[in-house]
Write a structure and sequence with these properties.
The complex is a heterodimer. Chain A is mostly helical. Helices cover 79% and strands 0% of the residues of chain A. The longest helix of chain A is centred in the last third of the chain and has 47 residues, at 196-242. Chain A is globular. Residues 183-192 of chain A have low confidence and may be disordered. Chain B has one domain (2-220). Helices cover 82% and strands 0% of the residues of chain B. Chain B has 10 helices and no strands. The longest helix of chain B has 31 residues, at 124-154. Chain B starts with a helix and ends with a helix. In chain B, 49% of the residues are buried. The chains are: A mainly alpha, B mainly alpha. Chain A binds chain B through residues 79, 131, 134-135, 137-138, 141-142, 145-146, 151-152, 154-155, 157-159, 161-163, 165-166, 169-170, 172-174, 176-177, 180, and chain B through 147, 150-151, 154-155, 157, 161, 164-165, 168-169, 171-172, 175-176, 179, 189, 197, 201, 204, 208, 212, 215-216, 219-220, 222. Chain A: It is a multi-pass membrane protein.
Chain lengths: 243, 222
């Protein structure tokens, strides 16, 4: 079965109906194992128990960017190949990505309170994630502004690709701006210096959250397809009654 | 080439004549700048410190306000369809329209900057630094904003949606524009570093803006 075969929404619905329970089960198991390991992980010698926020925060932050990547691929699918499911995928991904970004912001803020003594610091990473969140909300506003889904899909695809080009530039300029205004006060967390006791639960949680995204995304795509079917049935009914 | 020149000349004429509304942007810029001291207080040293930021924010909002006009009027009277179907490549036509818009609505903002700098207690070197950064930075605002204007016109929505889509994209321009002005006034950073990055941002938007706007017009109009 290739990507082209999935262009048929009926085949897509049949396939996902079989796959989704397994995906949901795997997600639940991985997240439970990850949470257990995270709870059992030792406290950090400096940060104490608050370091455990990391196990939620980092997977969410990584997914917040990954989802924009998924949407960019879908946008290419919409504009270049006119794949019928690409705009469904892009539309379904936006609220999920916004939710992950919001969670990354909230957990980052909660982590910042004991570490930096404030809920909000204009730290480079927090700031660029906040801008990413604003862009997700703008994209969702664009989707909601038009009632014709295929029109909205093409506009949203252009905006998604422009956003994908712009996000690295925004990230770079915020980093630059941040070092200009406040040199210190940023925590250090070298990726490679992470101890195994932290690294393994973190990886389990990252895979678990990624599977959670796939599950939610497929379910949301199914909902969107069914919603469009209901809409076209209602339109047909209305036109029959009028005739 | 003559077609593009004619397009630029036509757009500037329409913008400057009655009903065009290019100069309303300058009026808005002036009003916003005059409002700031009422919120902050008539504290001259503080206004000097905030001056570049106020001028940049005012210019950003003013250019956003006039962006709505970039495609809407042409869409309403049907000439946008002619431009899309015409033999001139749509990317070039979009670039010409944005250039005309910048000449009619962006340049007056830069010309007004020295007067507004006076109100904010900026000295001559500070004012010229802000004017120079605006001269280099406002094309980036117009050319990225054009993407939002093209999206908004295909969706028959303008105003707030345009602002929500365009403002996050203009954050880098704002950062480097204000940073370059501040560097010229207080240092310690050399003026050249943020200024050349600002130039780079403008050049990138000059390339990306017309293509994205043309793509959204081509896919969106029917």
């Amino acid at each position: 079965m290739t990507l082209i075969d999935l262009a048929n929404p009926t085949k897509f619905l049949a396939l996902t109906a079989r796959v989704l329970p397994w995906l949901a089960g795997a997600t639940a198991i991985l997240l439970l194992v990850g949470l257990y390991q995270a709870a059992m992980a030792p406290d950090d010698y400096q940060q104490g128990a608050t370091v455990k926020i990391m196990f939620i925060h980092v997977p969410n932050a990584w997914l917040s960017m990954f989802v924009w990547g998924v949407m960019s691929l879908s946008a290419l699918g919409t504009l270049v190949w006119r794949h019928p499911l690409a705009d469904v995928a892009a539309k379904a991904a936006a609220p999920i990505g916004a939710a992950f970004t919001f969670l990354a912001l909230v957990t980052g803020s909660l982590w910042g309170r004991p570490m930096w003594g404030t809920y909000w610091e204009w730290d480079a990473r927090l700031t660029s994630v906040l801008i990413l969140f604003l862009m997700y909300l703008g994209l969702m506003a664009l989707w909601r502004a038009v009632d014709d889904p295929s029109r909205a899909a093409r506009a949203a695809a252009v905006l998604t690709l422009v956003g994908a080009l712009n996000l690295p530039i925004i990230k770079f300029s915020v980093d630059w701006w941040n070092t200009l205004h406040q040199p210190a006060s940023v925590m250090r967390m070298g990726g490679t210096s992470l101890d195994k006791a932290f690294l393994i639960p973190l990886l389990v949680m990252a895979v678990g959250f990624s599977l959670l995204f796939v599950t939610l995304h497929l379910a949301a795509m199914r909902n969107e397809i069914l919603r469009r079917r209901v809409r076209s049935l209602q339109m047909m009914q209305a036109s029959q009654q009028a005739a | 080439m003559t077609a593009l020149a004619a397009l630029i000349r036509r757009d500037i004429k329409i913008a400057l004549r009655v009903g065009g509304g290019a100069l309303i942007g300058v009026l808005f810029f002036l009003t916003v700048t005059v409002l700031m001291p009422f919120a902050i207080g008539p504290d001259l040293p503080l206004l000097t410190r905030l001056g570049p930021a106020i001028l940049w924010l005012g210019a950003l909002l003013a250019s956003l306000l006039t962006l709505d006009r970039l495609f809407t009027a042409d869409h309403e009277d049907g000439s946008l369809d002619l431009i899309v179907m015409g033999r001139t490549p749509l990317e070039l036509a979009c670039a010409a329209k944005a250039l005309a818009h910048w000449l009619a609505a962006g340049v007056p903002l830069i010309v007004a900057t020295p007067v507004l700098g006076l109100l904010l207690n900026l000295d001559a070197s500070a004012t010229s630094a802000v004017a120079l950064t605006l001269l280099v930075g406002t094309p980036a605002l117009t050319f990225t904003g054009m993407i939002g204007a093209a999206l908004a016109v295909t969706l028959h929505r303008g105003g707030l949606l345009l602002a929500v889509l365009v403002l996050p994209l203009s954050i880098p321009v704002l950062i480097f524009g204000v940073a370059a002005s501040q560097a010229a006034i207080t240092g310690p950073l050399p003026f050249g570093t943020p200024f050349s990055i600002l130039c780079a941002l403008s050049l990138v938007s000059l390339v990306v803006g017309p293509f994205a706007a043309a793509a959204s017009l081509r896919h969106g109009l029917d």
